[in-house]
Amino acid sequence: MTMKIERRHSYGVIPFYKNERGEYEVLLILQSRLGPKVWGFPKGTPEGEETPIETARREVCEEIGCTDLHIDEGTSSTESYTFIELDGSEISKEVTYFLAFLENKEITIQDSEIDDYTWSSIAEAKERITYPETLEAFQKIVESL
Question: Which residue, of 4, 13, 32, 83, is most buried by count of CB atoms within 10 Å of its CB?
Answer without folding.
Answer: 13
